[in-house]
Write a structure and sequence with these properties.
Elements: H1 7-23, H2 26-49, H3 54-63, H4 70-85, H5 99-109, H6 120-131, H7 141-148, H8 163-180, H9 184-200
């Protein structure tokens, strides 16, 4: 991943994504199909329960997502939206992510802020959860690992990328997804599930 912009590295990344897609079991592919559908249903549920737009709900979910498990992310999103509805502040709520992200979630819930494109991962996640926007892919450390290796056991990989690298990885994921006739977020979720299962079993 040292020079992701070079054609050779991008070709390798796409090849690795194909391997992980092929490696996925039918159950893992089904999980990949269902994950964002479930996430979008949850965002819709929040928008109804707390009388906010689906974009706002998705933004709160996304702001709270860094270094946070999905089930806890849902708990935290509800807690933030409930707190804002009750006139509480970010100091009144505990969440399982960074304080800066908690503050951002509160500002989004209040309508004072939005997830910006300058934060490509959380922006993509909000677009995927809120609208299943096929122009964006949520690239986290598991996706980065999948782009770097085909190893089925843990190995050291780079787990962050620049904004430019993110755009290239996103484009490559979209390209591979089209080859298989699946939506980019489905490919990403399937690859995420598959490599995580192999490395943590």
């Amino acid at each position: 991943m040292k020079n992701l912009s070079c054609p050779k590295q991008r070709k390798r990344s796409r090849s690795n994504l194909r391997m992980w897609w092929t490696e996925a079991t039918e159950d893992e592919k089904l999980q990949g199909v269902l994950w964002y559908s479930e996430a979008q249903r949850f965002a819709k549920h929040l928008s109804v329960e707390f009388n906010v737009s689906r974009e706002c709900a998705a933004g709160v979910i996304s702001a709270l997502s860094p270094n946070n498990r999905w089930e806890r992310n849902k708990v935290d999103a509800k807690a933030v939206l409930r707190a804002v509805g009750e006139g509480l502040t970010h100091t009144d709520v505990k969440v399982c992510t960074y304080d800066a992200n908690k503050i951002k979630a509160f500002e989004i819930a209040r309508g004072n802020q939005q997830i910006l494109k300058q934060s490509p991962k959380t922006y993509a996640f909000a677009r995927n959860v809120g609208e299943m926007d096929e122009a964006f892919v949520t690239i986290d450390k598991w996706h980065l690992r999948a782009c770097q290796t085909t190893s089925k056991s843990p190995r050291e990989c780079k787990e962050t990328c620049t904004a430019k690298q993110y755009r290239l990885l996103q484009a490559d994921c979209i390209k591979v997804a089209r080859e298989y006739g699946v939506k980019p977020h489905v490919l990403q979720a399937t690859v995420w599930t598959t490599i995580r299962n192999r490395w943590t079993d």
